[in-house]
Amino acid sequence: MPDIRTSDFGGIPYGNTAGRPANPGIGKLYSNGEAQRLELYTADGWNNIVQETPGVSSISGNYSEATDSGVITITGTNFASGCYATAIGSNGVQVDATSTVFNSIVQVTATFTGLSNQYEPYDVKVTNPSNLFGIIPDALYVNASPVWQTSSGSLGTFGEQVSVSVSATATDSDSTITYALANGSSLPSGVSLNSSTGAITGTLPDIASSTTYTFTINASDGLNIIPRTFSITSQAITSSIELLMVAGGGGGGCDRAGGGGAGGLFYNSSYSLTGRSFALSIGTGGAGSTSDTEKGVNGSNTVFGSLVAIGGGGGGSENSKPGSSGGSGGGASYGDGQSGGSALQPGSSSGGFGNRGGNGKDSGGRSPGGGGGAGAQGTDAANNTYINGGNGLQYSITGTSTWYAGGGGAGDNRDGAGTAIGGLGGLGGGGNGGPSYSGGDTNGYPGTDGLGGGGGGGSTSNTGVGAKGGSGVVVLAYPDTYPAISSIPGTLTYDTPTRSGYRVYRFTAGTGTITF
Q1: Distance, C-alpha 515 to centroid of its chain
Q2: pLDDT, tens digit, for every residue of 12-30?
Q3: Structure pTM?
Protein backbone atom coordinates (compact mmCIF):
# COMPACT_ATOMS: atom_id res chain seq x y z
CA MET A 1 0.00 0.00 0.00
CA PRO A 2 1.15 3.60 -0.52
CA ASP A 3 2.60 5.61 2.40
CA ILE A 4 -0.41 7.55 3.66
CA ARG A 5 0.19 10.42 6.06
CA THR A 6 -2.37 11.88 8.34
CA SER A 7 -1.94 15.23 6.64
CA ASP A 8 -3.05 13.63 3.40
CA PHE A 9 -6.52 13.17 4.84
CA GLY A 10 -6.84 16.58 6.45
CA GLY A 11 -5.23 15.57 9.78
CA ILE A 12 -2.46 17.34 11.79
CA PRO A 13 0.50 18.08 9.56
CA TYR A 14 3.93 17.14 10.74
CA GLY A 15 7.54 17.64 9.86
CA ASN A 16 10.56 19.56 11.04
CA THR A 17 10.73 23.18 12.14
CA ALA A 18 11.39 24.37 8.60
CA GLY A 19 8.38 22.47 7.36
CA ARG A 20 5.81 24.44 9.35
CA PRO A 21 2.95 25.72 7.15
CA ALA A 22 3.81 29.05 5.58
CA ASN A 23 0.51 30.84 6.11
CA PRO A 24 -1.32 29.00 8.90
CA GLY A 25 -4.44 30.36 10.44
CA ILE A 26 -4.85 31.08 14.12
CA GLY A 27 -5.46 27.80 15.91
CA LYS A 28 -3.61 25.64 13.36
CA LEU A 29 -1.87 22.59 14.87
CA TYR A 30 1.52 21.25 13.80
CA SER A 31 3.45 18.18 14.95
CA ASN A 32 7.10 19.24 15.13
CA GLY A 33 9.12 16.08 14.99
CA GLU A 34 12.39 17.98 15.22
CA ALA A 35 11.39 19.71 18.47
CA GLN A 36 9.40 16.67 19.56
CA ARG A 37 6.33 18.69 20.50
CA LEU A 38 2.85 19.53 19.36
CA GLU A 39 2.60 23.20 18.40
CA LEU A 40 -0.28 25.65 18.18
CA TYR A 41 -0.23 28.75 16.00
CA THR A 42 -1.34 31.88 17.87
CA ALA A 43 -1.03 35.60 17.40
CA ASP A 44 2.45 35.23 18.97
CA GLY A 45 3.49 32.56 16.47
CA TRP A 46 4.08 28.86 16.99
CA ASN A 47 3.91 27.83 20.68
CA ASN A 48 4.33 24.55 22.50
CA ILE A 49 0.84 23.29 23.15
CA VAL A 50 2.06 21.14 26.03
CA GLN A 51 4.23 23.21 28.46
CA GLU A 52 7.72 22.07 29.20
CA THR A 53 8.65 20.90 32.73
CA PRO A 54 9.77 23.85 34.89
CA GLY A 55 13.03 23.70 36.77
CA VAL A 56 13.87 25.40 40.15
CA SER A 57 17.54 26.25 40.62
CA SER A 58 17.65 28.66 43.62
CA ILE A 59 15.69 30.90 45.95
CA SER A 60 16.42 34.17 47.76
CA GLY A 61 14.70 36.09 50.56
CA ASN A 62 13.82 35.26 54.18
CA TYR A 63 10.89 33.96 56.12
CA SER A 64 10.40 35.80 59.44
CA GLU A 65 9.12 33.94 62.45
CA ALA A 66 8.19 37.24 64.08
CA THR A 67 5.84 38.32 61.26
CA ASP A 68 5.02 34.74 60.19
CA SER A 69 5.59 35.67 56.56
CA GLY A 70 8.22 35.80 53.87
CA VAL A 71 8.61 37.01 50.30
CA ILE A 72 10.72 34.55 48.32
CA THR A 73 12.18 35.04 44.84
CA ILE A 74 12.41 31.73 42.90
CA THR A 75 14.79 31.36 39.96
CA GLY A 76 14.64 28.55 37.39
CA THR A 77 13.49 27.63 33.86
CA ASN A 78 10.26 27.11 31.90
CA PHE A 79 7.98 28.96 34.29
CA ALA A 80 4.63 29.70 32.74
CA SER A 81 2.06 32.37 33.44
CA GLY A 82 -0.40 31.02 35.96
CA CYS A 83 2.17 28.89 37.79
CA TYR A 84 2.10 28.72 41.60
CA ALA A 85 4.63 28.02 44.35
CA THR A 86 4.40 25.56 47.25
CA ALA A 87 6.49 24.96 50.39
CA ILE A 88 6.73 21.34 51.56
CA GLY A 89 7.69 20.78 55.21
CA SER A 90 9.65 17.90 56.71
CA ASN A 91 6.30 16.49 57.86
CA GLY A 92 5.22 16.22 54.20
CA VAL A 93 2.53 18.90 54.49
CA GLN A 94 2.34 21.24 51.47
CA VAL A 95 1.61 24.93 52.02
CA ASP A 96 0.69 26.89 48.89
CA ALA A 97 1.98 30.44 48.64
CA THR A 98 -0.65 33.06 49.45
CA SER A 99 0.35 34.71 46.17
CA THR A 100 2.64 33.83 43.26
CA VAL A 101 3.67 36.50 40.76
CA PHE A 102 4.95 35.35 37.32
CA ASN A 103 7.86 37.65 36.43
CA SER A 104 9.32 35.71 33.50
CA ILE A 105 9.98 32.17 32.36
CA VAL A 106 13.02 32.20 34.68
CA GLN A 107 11.66 34.00 37.79
CA VAL A 108 8.59 34.09 40.02
CA THR A 109 7.95 35.80 43.36
CA ALA A 110 6.01 33.94 46.05
CA THR A 111 4.64 35.16 49.39
CA PHE A 112 4.31 32.51 52.12
CA THR A 113 2.58 32.55 55.50
CA GLY A 114 1.86 29.93 58.15
CA LEU A 115 5.25 28.17 58.10
CA SER A 116 6.71 26.77 61.32
CA ASN A 117 10.40 26.28 62.05
CA GLN A 118 9.37 22.96 63.56
CA TYR A 119 9.19 21.52 60.02
CA GLU A 120 12.13 23.25 58.36
CA PRO A 121 13.90 23.00 55.99
CA TYR A 122 11.15 23.29 53.40
CA ASP A 123 11.28 22.09 49.78
CA VAL A 124 10.17 24.76 47.29
CA LYS A 125 8.03 23.61 44.34
CA VAL A 126 6.75 25.52 41.28
CA THR A 127 3.82 24.01 39.36
CA ASN A 128 2.83 25.19 35.86
CA PRO A 129 -0.82 25.22 34.69
CA SER A 130 -0.04 21.96 32.85
CA ASN A 131 0.59 20.41 36.32
CA LEU A 132 4.20 19.82 35.34
CA PHE A 133 6.43 21.00 38.21
CA GLY A 134 9.98 21.57 39.36
CA ILE A 135 11.30 21.35 42.91
CA ILE A 136 14.39 22.32 44.95
CA PRO A 137 14.79 20.34 48.20
CA ASP A 138 15.67 21.68 51.69
CA ALA A 139 15.89 25.27 50.49
CA LEU A 140 13.71 27.41 52.77
CA TYR A 141 14.31 28.01 56.49
CA VAL A 142 12.18 29.93 58.95
CA ASN A 143 14.36 32.67 60.47
CA ALA A 144 13.98 32.16 64.26
CA SER A 145 13.10 35.22 66.33
CA PRO A 146 15.25 36.46 69.22
CA VAL A 147 14.11 35.07 72.57
CA TRP A 148 14.47 37.38 75.58
CA GLN A 149 16.34 35.90 78.53
CA THR A 150 15.83 38.92 80.80
CA SER A 151 12.37 39.22 82.30
CA SER A 152 10.46 42.38 81.61
CA GLY A 153 9.98 44.90 84.39
CA SER A 154 12.43 46.33 86.90
CA LEU A 155 16.17 45.92 86.38
CA GLY A 156 16.88 47.28 89.87
CA THR A 157 16.69 50.19 92.28
CA PHE A 158 19.71 52.43 92.80
CA GLY A 159 20.64 55.62 94.55
CA GLU A 160 20.92 58.78 92.54
CA GLN A 161 24.28 59.66 91.00
CA VAL A 162 25.62 56.12 91.43
CA SER A 163 27.12 53.90 88.75
CA VAL A 164 24.83 51.21 87.39
CA SER A 165 25.66 48.11 85.40
CA VAL A 166 22.76 45.89 84.40
CA SER A 167 21.87 44.10 81.19
CA ALA A 168 18.91 42.99 79.10
CA THR A 169 19.80 40.04 76.87
CA ALA A 170 18.18 37.73 74.35
CA THR A 171 19.28 34.65 72.40
CA ASP A 172 18.75 33.59 68.78
CA SER A 173 19.37 30.12 67.39
CA ASP A 174 20.45 31.23 63.93
CA SER A 175 21.48 34.88 64.02
CA THR A 176 23.50 37.51 65.83
CA ILE A 177 21.41 39.89 67.93
CA THR A 178 21.70 43.65 68.16
CA TYR A 179 19.93 45.87 70.68
CA ALA A 180 18.41 49.30 70.24
CA LEU A 181 15.97 51.53 72.06
CA ALA A 182 12.53 51.51 70.50
CA ASN A 183 11.19 54.71 68.99
CA GLY A 184 10.10 57.06 71.73
CA SER A 185 12.16 55.32 74.45
CA SER A 186 15.11 56.82 76.29
CA LEU A 187 17.43 55.92 79.14
CA PRO A 188 18.29 58.20 82.08
CA SER A 189 20.84 60.86 81.16
CA GLY A 190 24.35 59.54 81.68
CA VAL A 191 23.28 55.92 81.00
CA SER A 192 23.72 54.13 77.66
CA LEU A 193 22.83 50.83 75.97
CA ASN A 194 25.52 48.64 74.37
CA SER A 195 24.07 47.61 71.00
CA SER A 196 26.12 44.42 70.86
CA THR A 197 25.73 43.05 74.41
CA GLY A 198 22.59 44.62 75.83
CA ALA A 199 24.59 46.04 78.75
CA ILE A 200 23.13 49.18 80.34
CA THR A 201 25.81 51.20 82.10
CA GLY A 202 26.55 54.70 83.31
CA THR A 203 25.97 57.09 86.20
CA LEU A 204 22.43 57.99 87.19
CA PRO A 205 21.63 61.70 87.25
CA ASP A 206 21.05 64.01 90.18
CA ILE A 207 17.30 64.05 90.91
CA ALA A 208 15.03 65.94 93.24
CA SER A 209 12.75 63.00 93.98
CA SER A 210 12.75 59.26 93.39
CA THR A 211 12.17 58.47 89.70
CA THR A 212 11.35 55.32 87.73
CA TYR A 213 12.63 55.31 84.13
CA THR A 214 10.67 53.02 81.80
CA PHE A 215 11.98 52.15 78.32
CA THR A 216 11.59 49.57 75.56
CA ILE A 217 14.51 47.73 73.94
CA ASN A 218 14.26 45.99 70.57
CA ALA A 219 16.24 42.78 70.13
CA SER A 220 16.84 42.30 66.40
CA ASP A 221 18.47 39.60 64.29
CA GLY A 222 18.29 41.78 61.20
CA LEU A 223 14.91 40.41 60.21
CA ASN A 224 12.88 39.76 63.35
CA ILE A 225 12.46 42.54 65.92
CA ILE A 226 11.21 41.57 69.37
CA PRO A 227 10.55 44.41 71.84
CA ARG A 228 10.55 44.18 75.64
CA THR A 229 9.91 46.88 78.25
CA PHE A 230 12.10 47.42 81.32
CA SER A 231 12.56 49.99 84.06
CA ILE A 232 15.26 51.36 86.38
CA THR A 233 14.38 53.17 89.59
CA SER A 234 16.64 55.87 91.00
CA GLN A 235 16.00 56.87 94.59
CA ALA A 236 16.88 60.35 95.72
CA ILE A 237 19.02 60.42 98.86
CA THR A 238 16.52 62.50 100.84
CA SER A 239 15.84 59.99 103.63
CA SER A 240 17.47 60.72 106.83
CA ILE A 241 19.46 58.03 108.61
CA GLU A 242 19.63 56.94 112.22
CA LEU A 243 23.24 57.43 113.26
CA LEU A 244 25.35 56.35 116.22
CA MET A 245 29.04 57.27 116.61
CA VAL A 246 31.37 56.32 119.45
CA ALA A 247 35.04 57.32 119.60
CA GLY A 248 37.86 55.16 120.91
CA GLY A 249 38.05 54.83 124.71
CA GLY A 250 40.93 56.22 126.75
CA GLY A 251 43.56 53.93 128.26
CA GLY A 252 43.69 53.27 132.00
CA GLY A 253 46.38 54.71 134.26
CA CYS A 254 49.13 52.82 136.05
CA ASP A 255 49.65 52.24 139.79
CA ARG A 256 46.59 53.04 141.94
CA ALA A 257 45.25 54.63 138.81
CA GLY A 258 42.08 56.14 137.46
CA GLY A 259 40.06 54.34 134.80
CA GLY A 260 40.11 55.52 131.22
CA GLY A 261 37.22 57.60 129.94
CA ALA A 262 34.81 56.21 127.36
CA GLY A 263 34.84 57.59 123.88
CA GLY A 264 32.52 60.49 123.20
CA LEU A 265 29.17 59.35 121.84
CA PHE A 266 26.99 60.96 119.17
CA TYR A 267 23.45 59.73 118.42
CA ASN A 268 20.73 61.15 116.23
CA SER A 269 17.57 59.25 115.38
CA SER A 270 17.02 61.29 112.23
CA TYR A 271 20.22 62.71 110.83
CA SER A 272 19.82 64.37 107.41
CA LEU A 273 22.50 63.52 104.90
CA THR A 274 23.98 66.27 102.80
CA GLY A 275 25.73 64.72 99.82
CA ARG A 276 26.37 61.08 99.00
CA SER A 277 30.00 60.43 99.90
CA PHE A 278 31.21 60.54 103.48
CA ALA A 279 34.67 60.19 104.97
CA LEU A 280 34.60 57.61 107.74
CA SER A 281 37.24 56.91 110.38
CA ILE A 282 36.79 54.62 113.37
CA GLY A 283 38.63 55.78 116.49
CA THR A 284 41.08 53.36 118.09
CA GLY A 285 41.40 52.86 121.83
CA GLY A 286 44.16 54.72 123.67
CA ALA A 287 47.03 52.72 125.10
CA GLY A 288 47.07 52.05 128.82
CA SER A 289 49.79 53.66 130.93
CA THR A 290 52.84 51.54 131.74
CA SER A 291 54.48 54.08 134.03
CA ASP A 292 53.31 55.76 137.24
CA THR A 293 54.55 59.05 135.82
CA GLU A 294 52.33 58.95 132.70
CA LYS A 295 48.63 58.99 132.18
CA GLY A 296 46.75 56.60 129.96
CA VAL A 297 46.61 57.72 126.33
CA ASN A 298 43.46 59.33 124.96
CA GLY A 299 41.41 57.36 122.47
CA SER A 300 41.24 58.50 118.84
CA ASN A 301 38.32 60.42 117.37
CA THR A 302 35.64 58.79 115.25
CA VAL A 303 34.61 60.78 112.16
CA PHE A 304 31.58 60.59 109.88
CA GLY A 305 31.51 63.36 107.30
CA SER A 306 31.64 66.62 109.24
CA LEU A 307 30.71 64.96 112.56
CA VAL A 308 33.37 64.14 115.14
CA ALA A 309 33.05 62.00 118.25
CA ILE A 310 35.96 62.86 120.56
CA GLY A 311 38.21 60.14 121.91
CA GLY A 312 37.98 59.30 125.61
CA GLY A 313 40.50 60.74 128.07
CA GLY A 314 43.22 58.56 129.56
CA GLY A 315 43.11 57.74 133.27
CA GLY A 316 45.53 59.36 135.74
CA SER A 317 48.53 57.52 137.23
CA GLU A 318 50.05 57.72 140.74
CA ASN A 319 52.49 60.50 139.96
CA SER A 320 50.40 62.09 137.20
CA LYS A 321 47.22 62.26 139.17
CA PRO A 322 44.44 64.01 137.16
CA GLY A 323 42.82 62.06 134.35
CA SER A 324 42.83 63.62 130.91
CA SER A 325 39.96 65.44 129.27
CA GLY A 326 38.26 63.76 126.35
CA GLY A 327 34.94 62.66 124.91
CA SER A 328 34.43 61.29 128.41
CA GLY A 329 37.06 62.23 130.98
CA GLY A 330 39.52 59.82 132.53
CA GLY A 331 39.42 59.21 136.29
CA ALA A 332 42.01 60.73 138.62
CA SER A 333 44.65 58.74 140.49
CA TYR A 334 44.64 58.93 144.30
CA GLY A 335 45.53 62.26 145.84
CA ASP A 336 43.77 64.94 147.82
CA GLY A 337 41.66 67.21 145.67
CA GLN A 338 42.59 65.55 142.37
CA SER A 339 39.75 65.90 139.88
CA GLY A 340 38.93 63.53 137.07
CA GLY A 341 39.33 64.67 133.47
CA SER A 342 36.53 66.79 132.05
CA ALA A 343 34.23 65.76 129.21
CA LEU A 344 34.76 67.68 125.99
CA GLN A 345 32.02 66.03 123.96
CA PRO A 346 28.95 68.27 124.21
CA GLY A 347 25.89 66.62 125.64
CA SER A 348 22.64 67.18 123.75
CA SER A 349 19.97 65.25 121.90
CA SER A 350 21.54 66.08 118.55
CA GLY A 351 25.15 66.25 119.64
CA GLY A 352 27.37 63.90 121.58
CA PHE A 353 27.46 62.57 125.09
CA GLY A 354 30.31 62.35 127.58
CA ASN A 355 30.83 62.69 131.33
CA ARG A 356 33.82 63.59 133.40
CA GLY A 357 35.89 61.07 135.25
CA GLY A 358 35.63 60.45 138.97
CA ASN A 359 37.77 62.36 141.46
CA GLY A 360 40.63 60.80 143.34
CA LYS A 361 41.02 61.02 147.15
CA ASP A 362 44.01 60.51 149.44
CA SER A 363 42.78 60.31 152.97
CA GLY A 364 44.32 57.13 154.16
CA GLY A 365 42.53 55.07 151.54
CA ARG A 366 44.47 56.36 148.55
CA SER A 367 41.46 55.93 146.25
CA PRO A 368 41.48 56.78 142.52
CA GLY A 369 38.37 57.59 140.48
CA GLY A 370 36.57 55.69 137.77
CA GLY A 371 36.55 56.85 134.14
CA GLY A 372 33.59 58.79 132.78
CA GLY A 373 31.00 57.07 130.63
CA ALA A 374 28.60 58.50 128.03
CA GLY A 375 25.67 58.24 130.40
CA ALA A 376 27.26 58.88 133.80
CA GLN A 377 30.44 60.24 135.33
CA GLY A 378 32.95 57.91 136.87
CA THR A 379 32.55 57.19 140.59
CA ASP A 380 34.39 59.57 142.92
CA ALA A 381 36.87 57.95 145.27
CA ALA A 382 36.11 57.63 148.98
CA ASN A 383 37.03 55.25 151.74
CA ASN A 384 35.28 51.91 151.59
CA THR A 385 33.61 52.59 148.24
CA TYR A 386 33.91 51.07 144.81
CA ILE A 387 35.35 53.28 142.13
CA ASN A 388 33.51 52.14 139.02
CA GLY A 389 33.50 53.58 135.56
CA GLY A 390 30.42 55.52 134.53
CA ASN A 391 27.79 53.64 132.54
CA GLY A 392 27.29 54.27 128.88
CA LEU A 393 24.02 54.70 126.98
CA GLN A 394 21.71 52.08 125.51
CA TYR A 395 20.37 51.99 121.94
CA SER A 396 18.62 49.51 119.64
CA ILE A 397 19.96 50.90 116.39
CA THR A 398 21.22 47.46 115.32
CA GLY A 399 17.93 45.78 116.18
CA THR A 400 19.29 44.57 119.51
CA SER A 401 19.43 46.72 122.64
CA THR A 402 23.11 47.43 123.33
CA TRP A 403 25.11 49.56 125.81
CA TYR A 404 27.82 51.79 124.37
CA ALA A 405 30.66 53.92 125.79
CA GLY A 406 31.12 52.80 129.39
CA GLY A 407 34.00 54.20 131.46
CA GLY A 408 36.87 52.07 132.76
CA GLY A 409 37.05 51.08 136.41
CA ALA A 410 39.84 52.47 138.59
CA GLY A 411 42.60 50.16 139.81
CA ASP A 412 43.70 49.43 143.39
CA ASN A 413 41.14 51.30 145.42
CA ARG A 414 41.86 50.43 149.11
CA ASP A 415 40.37 51.28 152.41
CA GLY A 416 42.24 52.24 155.62
CA ALA A 417 42.83 48.57 156.43
CA GLY A 418 44.63 48.05 153.12
CA THR A 419 41.85 46.02 151.50
CA ALA A 420 41.99 46.33 147.72
CA ILE A 421 38.73 46.95 145.88
CA GLY A 422 39.01 46.96 142.10
CA GLY A 423 36.61 49.21 140.19
CA LEU A 424 34.15 47.77 137.70
CA GLY A 425 33.91 48.97 134.13
CA GLY A 426 30.70 50.80 133.27
CA LEU A 427 27.98 49.22 131.14
CA GLY A 428 29.01 49.68 127.54
CA GLY A 429 32.41 48.05 127.30
CA GLY A 430 34.35 49.66 130.16
CA GLY A 431 37.24 47.54 131.38
CA ASN A 432 37.56 46.53 135.07
CA GLY A 433 40.36 47.96 137.16
CA GLY A 434 43.11 45.83 138.68
CA PRO A 435 41.95 44.94 142.21
CA SER A 436 45.08 43.72 143.97
CA TYR A 437 47.04 45.86 146.44
CA SER A 438 48.78 43.53 148.85
CA GLY A 439 48.21 40.32 146.88
CA GLY A 440 50.34 41.28 143.93
CA ASP A 441 50.18 43.60 140.97
CA THR A 442 47.23 43.27 138.63
CA ASN A 443 46.77 44.85 135.22
CA GLY A 444 43.60 46.66 134.26
CA TYR A 445 41.16 45.07 131.84
CA PRO A 446 40.82 46.51 128.35
CA GLY A 447 37.74 48.29 127.11
CA THR A 448 35.62 46.43 124.59
CA ASP A 449 36.33 47.04 120.91
CA GLY A 450 33.36 48.26 118.93
CA LEU A 451 31.79 49.82 122.03
CA GLY A 452 34.26 52.59 122.83
CA GLY A 453 34.71 51.56 126.48
CA GLY A 454 37.53 53.02 128.58
CA GLY A 455 40.39 50.81 129.73
CA GLY A 456 40.65 49.77 133.37
CA GLY A 457 43.33 51.23 135.64
CA GLY A 458 46.18 49.07 136.93
CA SER A 459 47.02 48.26 140.55
CA THR A 460 50.21 49.11 142.48
CA SER A 461 53.57 49.54 140.89
CA ASN A 462 54.60 49.71 137.28
CA THR A 463 54.06 46.00 136.80
CA GLY A 464 50.30 46.37 137.17
CA VAL A 465 49.70 48.57 134.18
CA GLY A 466 46.62 50.23 132.77
CA ALA A 467 44.67 48.64 129.93
CA LYS A 468 43.93 49.87 126.44
CA GLY A 469 40.59 51.46 125.67
CA GLY A 470 38.19 49.79 123.26
CA SER A 471 37.83 50.93 119.66
CA GLY A 472 34.89 53.03 118.59
CA VAL A 473 32.04 52.30 116.23
CA VAL A 474 29.76 53.92 113.66
CA VAL A 475 26.33 52.39 113.19
CA LEU A 476 23.84 53.71 110.67
CA ALA A 477 20.37 52.47 109.82
CA TYR A 478 17.78 53.52 107.26
CA PRO A 479 14.67 51.94 105.68
CA ASP A 480 15.39 49.00 103.42
CA THR A 481 13.22 50.51 100.69
CA TYR A 482 16.30 52.57 99.87
CA PRO A 483 19.26 50.99 98.07
CA ALA A 484 22.32 49.56 99.74
CA ILE A 485 25.48 51.64 100.11
CA SER A 486 27.08 51.47 96.69
CA SER A 487 30.74 51.71 97.70
CA ILE A 488 32.57 50.63 100.86
CA PRO A 489 36.40 50.53 100.74
CA GLY A 490 38.05 47.30 101.78
CA THR A 491 39.99 49.12 104.50
CA LEU A 492 36.79 49.45 106.54
CA THR A 493 35.67 46.57 108.71
CA TYR A 494 31.92 46.25 108.97
CA ASP A 495 28.98 43.90 109.32
CA THR A 496 25.25 44.22 108.65
CA PRO A 497 23.15 43.36 111.71
CA THR A 498 19.56 42.28 111.14
CA ARG A 499 16.85 44.79 111.92
CA SER A 500 13.39 44.32 110.48
CA GLY A 501 12.59 46.88 107.80
CA TYR A 502 16.04 48.51 107.86
CA ARG A 503 19.44 48.35 106.25
CA VAL A 504 22.03 48.45 109.03
CA TYR A 505 25.80 48.91 108.72
CA ARG A 506 28.11 48.63 111.74
CA PHE A 507 31.69 49.85 111.11
CA THR A 508 34.20 48.80 113.77
CA ALA A 509 37.61 49.60 112.29
CA GLY A 510 39.39 51.35 109.46
CA THR A 511 39.30 54.52 107.43
CA GLY A 512 37.77 55.28 104.05
CA THR A 513 35.02 57.00 102.11
CA ILE A 514 31.62 55.38 101.71
CA THR A 515 29.16 56.34 98.97
CA PHE A 516 25.39 56.06 99.08
Answers
A1: 14
A2: 898 998 989 988 888 898 8
A3: 0.61
